[in-house]
């Protein structure tokens, strides 16, 4: 287990470096800067001399390699720099948004697992039945619906028509405000999980060892819980891990729509304002989250299926 | 008898209506104002000096106050923190009598020292405050900015409540110091550090809470200097950048105000209930297609006039902008005191356009590159509509798409042949016209490189004029010259639209930015769902 962990962590560092380099390069070649964003509507029209000075102070005119070197140097000691926009440390900006984002992602994933896995399981146990067809229609619909549209429909139905939930905002961070954005974010992974679970369970149900277990007279519930579920779980967990890891990035649209104060909405705003340190910090966090979840999933494989060993 | 009965009934109805009208006119104390921040998914800064974003201005105006304020009823700047101001004969020295009943939220009385401190802080060159562009008009401010002086020589404290301000140019300081990012702040609170997280000001509401990316909550300032105000106990700014989400929230009565885009404007106007709560104003933004006169065809005013005649502007405003704009006649918007109502916009006349092109030596038209952003009201959709209109008179425009944040960069560097954009054209009409004065550098704002000796002469006369009425006349004359010279295609003046709930009163049609409300005048009646 420890070896797996060490190997995974060793992979994380070059991956992170590559991501940092790509993001840095992208924002260096994109036209426009934080200062031009300030001028966007003519309201903040800044004196050219001041613009020039600000560019100098922010290091925007330094050679690319020098800026990258400085950035990586600061990053190595955990300093993500200061936001161009608010002048606050990026770590603080992200810190303020981290818990709402995690809360949203966890709630969405919980929704996806609680609905998606049983749905796929039930569908697989009765292939070709009405239950199977219905659950797959739900799954395919969930996968194909754009999050923005789905979020709006949820708002319209549960807030405007049924008056059950608030349509937007963070409130006190409780369940009433969390429910709609979590469903909007969770529907897509729920659908994928339902399809994956169905496929995995069907695959295992046709395996030789299941037939053997049945021929030995093992009861169907025991076959399903003891043999089918455990063996199908590896693929299901892989899907959960991949979806969970990428949810932080997917939350961007949902957070913005529901005015949820997470990292996603900070990222969008920072991109539009060309607040490069904040953008880099947000992307770094999203990537780190993805890598961390995947490392945990790798460790989970080993725990679930002792046959899995990493050379 | 029947007649008497009818008369009594009519009288009762009249009295009832009058009472109802009275009830709606008498501001109610208490309640919560729930406004929306539509211009982004977060606030930039709650430190008023550190930001020029419209979104930040909404909160800033509630917490802080500058020397002047904007009178939306009369479209002019008025004194806010002073009781009187006396200009010198040469129009360069202004003596302010400050109010002696104004307290910061920390309980300390505001004095002339606070004005001097705030303006000096803004000129701190290490901070790059955007509002430095306004303070620079005070004599000696630039020296502080350059680090050559520690104090602004043009600011002199006569006594605690008398301040003398010497300007570098003969301008109305009100246009510079009504901007909320020139607000007066208390030194002791700023020096505690992290002022943006704990802003303390002079405004009608006191900072209570900021959840980044979600909301800002403010509470009534009991020591506000305007007696009996503010009316509401609380103000909440909900940050909501997505228009469809705002629409649902507004219809669900979760917010009290919402900015409307063109599509929503049509829907709200068509709705019998929602249409009762729409506030409209011609904001001080002129949308225009700006010609770079370095590009040969645009050096001839007949070509520029031809383009103004070739485009069916009214049709575009009606069909594409959904009437959420006012037709532009010249550069200065209709909210400018120098706006000339008699000026008629260029008529849609392709034949005249062709004749003008022929006279200018382009009988077969010409080709140019048209830089645009994606903006729905003054970007690509508009360009797509004008392309066939220009083609009809032989002009081929090739669209070049850039991101909206890049557009100003492109303009100031002159990297365009023509571009379409939105231009701030107020409230200082003279400053706005400076962008066409031949001695103004391109990097400042003369992006057209337009040059006209006739315009220069009138502009210089206006700048030198001390008499406000005569100055206004000259500004109007300069604006009329621009109309004839057509350095741009005059498209429209933005019509800002704010939807509001039936229980909210006292909103102002602020032409400088409709979301910027003097919230001490806003009140909610008992129908508000938030108690």
Looking at CATH, the homologous superfamily of the largest domain in chain B is Dipeptide-binding Protein, Domain 3
Structural class of chain B: alpha+beta
CATH architecture of the largest domain in chain B: Roll
Poorly predicted runs of 5 or more residues of chain A: none
What's the alpha carbon Rg of chain A, rounded to whole Å? Answer: 24 Å
Number of strands of chain B: 19
The general outline of chain B is globular
**How much helix, percentage-wise, in residues of chain A?**
over 70%
Instruction: Give me the strand/helix succession of chain A.
Output: HHHHHHHHHHHH
- Roughly how many Å is the radius of gyration of chain B? 25 Å
By CATH reckoning, the class of the largest domain in chain B would read Alpha Beta
Would you identify the CATH H-level superfamily of the largest domain in chain A?
Answer: MetI-like
- Mean pLDDT over the full residue set of chain A: 86
Which consecutive residue ranges of chain B, at least 5 long each, have pLDDT under 50? 1-23
Q: How would a textbook summarize the main sheet of chain A? A: none
Amino- and carboxy-terminal Cα gap of chain A: 12 Å
Q: How many domains in all of chain A?
A: 2
Q: How many distinct folded domains of chain B?
A: 3
Structural class of chain A: mainly alpha
